Amino acid sequence: MKSLGIKSSQIMRHLYNFTRLFFYKPERIKEFVKRVDEMGFDMNSKMFLHAIRAVSSVTVKNWELKLELFRSLGLSDVDIRSVFQRHPHVFTISQRKIKDVTQLLLATGKFDISFIVNHPDSLCYSIKNRLKPRLRVVEVLENKKLLPKKPSLTSLHKITDEKFFEKFVLPYSNEVGEIYIAREFS
Questions:
Q1: What angle do CA 6, 18, 101 make, to 5 degrees?
Q2: Would the N or C end of the chain have less CB density within 10 A of its end CB?
Q3: What is the mean pLDDT of residues 157-163?
């Protein structure tokens, strides 16, 4: 890997977390590096080996199917490269989940495709346990005009369950407590 220009510090950082990478033949690693390079990745990026990991986890056929899926959802090739560079792990998620999360977010009318391009990690969250309950809680609070200010859509899905509960459920437990608690038992 060093002969391909990958820094020793990057290699060492991934030695324990991604040992499988070190068992590939050099030719395979060259293929992975080439595919990552084709996506416009900077070899000096801290995310470079994460990108290698993602590429190595997906067959070429499935990779092409993911590219087609993203295009069918309205992403340009530039958008797709941006998604990959920001969060390579997205390419290891099932096509069904990518499609379902995208459709859920777009259906709210609060998100557009550029949100997904800029925050591809949103595709990684659970629909059932995180996205739907949180979107529903905020919708109820907004409809009842209980929120002093509109929450950032980014922080809405990124904050921990504990912080979300403290900020959006506990103070309004009479209005939304049942909605949020229902997700625990569904």
A1: 105
A2: C
A3: 90
